[in-house]
Every structure is written in structure tokens, then in C-alpha cells.
């Protein structure tokens, strides 16, 4: 039976993976045909089993089930996509009625909550909306998150899961930033079943939100919210309370950003999320306790074997815990995997571990095909495979002495840490060198002490105080480890094939194989550890225009140096482009910044600077910010002034604006934007290639540059001034620069209307090719190919990605 399942499972995995590579979906007939063909072929092959030679039978079964999985996954995707928000309804005033599906998440700007739509109207006429939307309630005038004042939510209502409300909203399609190796927000929304996001309208001309009563539709979510409220009332917000709230209810937003940074540096972030390892360890602990209790009763043990009772009890309690903690996608995957292994054990079958491993992965992909694209799936799936291959004890919950199980857990953690290092580097570009030391204490401490106390506190609240004390001790230990030199090893993310070879080397290193085979592991590991990201040739440079939404951030690289022009916006008190986009992006390519140039003080240009400077200690800062600006406390700031000039690797950098005398004048920040021109070395007698980065200068500053530059403004690529504002990109300025390409950094459906129609018309009149962030995502340009530009959103397009009109 096991042998018969292998080709079917391989086909399931292959067909699912192939469908997930589609940039656009086929229609229902195509997937329906694939589904029917796959089922028919599988049925025929079952009839012919024994008549075909084994290799051909395997190949045929793999192909049949691949076609079946391709059709099934595509059909599910088409059905889900058919419920998407109609483009004509984006940004329109809608009146909706529905139920708060999950407990709201409090942010510094207001509330975020999932809303199950029951009915919707536009100007009194019924309209069809996606069944589930993500809403924000920001207080004040009900503005969008990127323009909401940081009010702290003082005037916000208390929303409870299960309540029915009627409210005026504005919605838009999910549209996140698209950067190399960046977080795929649109895939996350797809996996969560969310097909629109928006905000509650609270202006005087909108009908006020109305609470229509409690429905009782989501009792588990309501219970989670009550528990979270009790924890906050007992322990306050943030600090240890955030840890306990996350462990009990799955609300990771309760953990402060500084704590997350420590978790990542020490490799224990998986313990603070309801992750695969967390649920697995909880199942093991629950099964151990159930088994111990069961063995104390002779009557129960005679009626039903204690190991089986322990296994069933552990699975049921883990299921209940995953459900109460929010039933997140990682927890769901783990539950399905544990159920597959557990049911196999209960059936009395003993299969080879590769078959059991493949069965667990196949079950997860059958339930959630898009898990294939999640880092958490690969970490948990490969970790289980490592334990199998190294002689671990996956699935043996509740068996053996506690001391033996604890020692086994320590060994397994060492094996997993060693084997997963190449995979972690491939997925995240960094690995904690103190992760083993941190996890050796953190895993048993969180699993055996903190989590039981936190859960028991639901019944006896004073136990939360003990849990908070246990958290404080662990936090001290983790902070001590995080402060070690070289606590985090960061390497450039290697291409997939090199990274996969490294993963294979890690697995080979810990597998139960002859020593002669395991000695091949270093040869597979070294390329992924030594790989370096390509850099421009001497005298040339490249631009990576990051997708940070409504803001500016441009990475400039030469052969041996790197400069970041602006650091993107601040999204909220605890979230900015530096932490969310730029630091991971720089880590992906192992970039060490030499200089950070902040064009001016506006928050959409300097919002991410603290996070960037925190990770790049050697970078100096040039800017036009005023002396009392808080950034001066982080790093000495050199004033940028026209006439400054330096050369890196044969590439010339020139500051064109502002003049030194401008600092004495009282002008608005946009007028003080540092304008930077970058010129590559001339090649083959042709004119040197140049780029012009302009900040938020407006028409007056453009005119002065044209008058004073004396022809030195010419550039092949132009960062469009002020995100394409109607006050910039004057005709005389565009004629003086004469770019071939123009790049706009702006947010999708931003409130400013950037880029405006008038400047767009001027670019079209001059036949300047224009690219913008909502359509292009991150943009890559090289001085060696001045007429070419690569768009990340186009290159990495998949069918769940939103295509802007």
C-alpha cells in the first residue's frame, strides 16, 4: 500500500507546484477537463496495475495524479478569484452590513478586523462584494492607514467578535509592495480568504456606524477576545503581557517590535507564533500528560492501550489549542500533518519514513495547495524529514520516560538547527549563530513552563503573574545572547539551485548514511555559503528602486560601495519601510551601506532611516534635515550642498541642490531636497550614462537647477520629482534632463493622486518611457543597459497578484 501511494503523492506534489507557477489562470473548462482526465487516467491505471512494467507504471501514475492535482488546484483558484472585488467599486462609498468574524487587532492608528459581508449597497443599489474583507477603523475622519493620525485609538469603539454592524466603507483590491525576496502581502491575503481591504468612513456626510447586536456566530473568537482582555487587564499592554497574549490567543501583534528583533537575532521567533513546532511541542506535552494519567487507571489501560490514548488525547488537545489560538495557516498545516502521522500509527501500519514524510506533505498540500509557497511549510516539513532521516521520534508522543524524552528533544533540536541552517539562509538571508543555545533553553522553558502557566491562567488568573516572571527570565537570557558579537550571520541569498544544493548538503550531514556519503555534504554546502551577489563592473553602477508604497528609497551600487537615497515612509509607530522592506532587501544581496542620503525631512523619505542605520553601523548620513531633528541623535549628519562631489569605483556622485545659503532661508522641506546626480565612466567613446535623483523638488527648484546647471542636468534615467506631483516635472526641466526613462515611486490609489495627469502628459509628449511602483514593483536599472529596466512585479507575476488598472 505504501509503495502504491508514492507515485500518487509525487504526482500530487508536482501538479500542485506546476499550477502555482501560473501568471494567469485558465478558465473553469480547462481545469475541469484536467480534473476529469486525471481521475480517468488514475482509474484506468489502477485496472492495469500488475500488467505494466514497474517503471512505466510509476511514471504513468505520477503524470495522472499531477494532471489531477493541477486541475483541482486551478479549479479552486478560479472559484475563489470569481468572488474578487469589482474594479469599479474600488474607492467608492459603500454601505455594508455584516459580522465581525475575528477578534479585532489594535494598532497605534486604530483597529483592524475581518468582516464577513452579508449585504452591501452603493447609493441604495445592491452590489456584490467579496464574502470576507479586512477593514480598518482609524478614528477621527476615518482616513486610510497611510494618512491616519497616530491617535492611539482613544475615540474608537469596542468591537467584539460575532457582532453585527452596519457601516460606510471604502474598499480596494489587495495590493502590496513587490520586492526581491520580500513579503508577498497579496499571497497572504489570498491564503487568509481576504479579497479586499479598506476603512470605515466616519465623515459627516456618511451614515454613522451602527451596532446591530451580538449574533453568537463566532464563539471561539469571542472567547479568545475575552481572554485577551483579561490578560491586558491583569498585566497591562506590551512587555511580558504581549508574550503571554500571543502564546494563549495567537495575537502576535501584542508583541512589541523590539522583542521581535531579539527573537529573530536568537532564532526563537517560531516559539512566539503559533507555529508548526509550537503546536507539535504542545501535542507532545499534552500526550505525555494524558498517557501518564491513563496509565494510573488499570481499568482504562485494559480497555484501551495507553500509547494510543496518549496519541489521540495529544492530537485532540493540540487541535483545540490551534483552534483557540486563531486557527492560523501554520497551525492548520501542522494539525493535518500530525493527524496523517497519528492515524497511520493508530492503524498499526509501519511504513518507511520517506513514505510517511511524503504522506504528511501530500495531506497538507491537498488541504492547502498554497502552503507550498510559504517559508513556514518548508521549515516544518524539512524539519520533520530531518528527524525521520536522523532517527528522531516524530509522532511518538506520550511514550517513554520524561527524562529520556527531554534528552531526545535536546538532540533533535541540535540536529534540526544544523540541518536547517542552509534552508534558513536560502529563505531569509541570515541565521542566528546563537540559535542553538537560545533554543536549548527557550523550547523547554516556553513549552514546559511558560505555556502551561499561561494557559492555566485562563482558569486561575494569578498564574499569569508567574508566567510573566518566567517570561522576564527568558527575555533576560535572550537579550544577553542577542548582544553577543556576530550573533547573526547574514549572507547573500543564493540562486535557488545553489540554495537547494546547500539544503541537500544539510540533510546529508545528519542522515543515517555511511560516512563516505556524508563526506559529500561540505561540497554541497560550500557554494551556498560562499556565493556573492553580482556587483556592477568598475566604472558602472546600478539602481534598485524599492517598492515602499508612497515614499522614496533607491539603492545605488558600484563595484565596492553602496548608497541608499532616502529610506521610505513610516507606516505606523511600530512599522516602517526600513524594517519591513529595506533591511530585508539589503540583507538579501548582502549589501553593506557606506552612505545614507536623506533628501529632506518628510516622513515618507526618512521614516525607515532608524531601522536602516541600526543595521548598518558604518554608514554615514547626508541630509538637509534641521539640526533639531531626532535623527541627529542616531548618527552625525553632514549637510548636503550644491558642489559636493565624490568618486566611488570610477562613478562620480554630484550634489546639485540645495545651495549652502538656502539653509538660512525659511523654506518648506520639499524645497530643500538633496538632488543627486550619478554618472558612470564613459564607454567606447559614447557619452557617459547618468541618473538623476530629485527628492521632492518642485517647479521653482527645477527652474533654478536649469538656470545654474549649464547643461549638467542631462540624465538617462530620472527619478520623477515629488512622486509625479502636479507642482513638479515642468516642461523646461524635462527638456534639460532629457531622460529616456522616468521612474515614479508612489502608493497604489494613494490619497495625493500621484502621479498627476498634467505631468504624465508632459512625459508622454516627450516620449519618455515612464514606470511606476503600482504597476512595476521594485525597479532594477543598470548603467550598462541604460534603455532597459526590470520590473519585479512583472517578473514574479502570479495569478493571485493584483494587476493595477
Notable traits:
805 residues, alpha+beta, OB fold (Dihydrolipoamide Acetyltransferase, E2P), 8-stranded mixed sheet, 7-stranded mixed sheet, 28 helices, 45% helix, 15% strand, globular
Summarize the structure in words:
- The protein is of the alpha+beta class.
- Among the domains are: 80 residues; 131 residues, OB fold (Dihydrolipoamide Acetyltransferase, E2P) (Beta Barrel); 34 residues, no CATH class; 254 residues, Ribonuclease Z/Hydroxyacylglutathione hydrolase-like (Metallo-beta-lactamase, Chain A, 4-Layer Sandwich), CATH 3.60.15.10.
- The protein has 28 helices and 27 strands.
- The strands form 5 sheets. The protein has an 8-stranded mixed sheet with strand order 18-17-16-13-12-11-26-27. A 7-stranded mixed sheet has the order 19-20-21-22-23-24-25.
- Strand 2 and strand 3 form a beta hairpin.
- Helix 21 packs parallel to helix 23.
- It is globular.
- It starts with a helix and ends in a 10-residue tail after the last helix.
Number of helices: 28
Give unreliable regions as ranges.
140-154, 394-400
The computed structural class is: alpha+beta
| CATH third-level topology of the domain at 542-795 | Metallo-beta-lactamase, Chain A
Side by side, the strands of the main sheet go 18-17-16-13-12-11-26-27
CATH top level of the domain at 542-795 is: Alpha Beta
Oligomeric nature of the chains: single chain
**Global mean pLDDT:** 88
> Can you give the helix content as a percent range?
40-55%
**Major sheet characteristics:** 8 strands, mixed
Q: How much is the radius of gyration in Å?
A: 29 Å
CATH superfamily of the domain at 542-795: Ribonuclease Z/Hydroxyacylglutathione hydrolase-like
State the distance separating the first and last CA atoms: 52 Å
Principal-axes geometry comes out as: globular
Strand content: 5-15%
| Number of E strands | 27
